[in-house]
Specification:
It is a single chain. The protein contains three helices and six strands. By secondary structure, it is α+β, with helices and mostly antiparallel strands. It has a single domain (19-138), classed as 2-Layer Sandwich (Heat Shock Protein 90), CATH 3.30.565. A six-stranded antiparallel sheet has the order 1-2-3-4-6-5, covered by helices on one side. The longest helix is centred in the middle third of the chain and has 19 residues, at 52-70. The termini are far apart.
Length: 145
């Protein structure tokens, strides 16, 4: 597993408002390693002072996104998770190498779960041999029930 962290000042004075971190985690594209990613997700969200419910929602969303991607991953390749943290939000981009399919299904139950747990969900489809899902979660954002 590779864990790279870069911190950049964004000019906002004081506390967490000035935090802007980028963290990348590379794991084998196998479900046995998802617990490591769930733990990393929770730790990073806690660093931004997310509530326990927000942390759990994000952990479940990242797990669900990875489960969707692993079904399309080329065996023996890596799953890459990139986290971008600011004072108020976390953006998580998870991706795998694929053959032939570049976009997850947006009309199934798993996608509905993602949209219920994260504030924004999207799929990146720029490359035919990569599949990526991007989640955005804001601290304190009110969700519609």
């Amino acid at each position: 597993m590779t864990d790279e962290t870069a911190t950049r000042a964004d000019g906002v004075p004081g506390g967490l408002a000035g935090i802007r971190d980028a963290v990348s985690v590379r794991l084998p594209a196998a479900s046995a390693y998802l617990s490591v990613l769930r733990t990393a997700t929770a730790g990073l969200a806690a660093r931004l002072d997310f509530t326990l419910d927000e942390i759990e929602d994000l952990r479940i969303a990242v797990d669900e996104a990875c489960a969707m991607l692993l079904g399309h991953a080329v065996p023996g390749t890596d799953l890459i998770a990139e986290f971008e943290l600011t004072g108020q939000e976390m953006i998580v981009r998870v991706q795998v190498s694929t053959v032939g399919q570049a976009e997850p299904k947006r009309d199934d139950f798993a996608w509905m779960v993602l949209t219920a747990l994260a504030d924004e969900v999207d799929a990146e489809t720029g490359t035919p041999d990569r599949m990526a899902i991007v989640l955005r979660k804001r601290r304190g954002a009110a969700r519609l029930s």
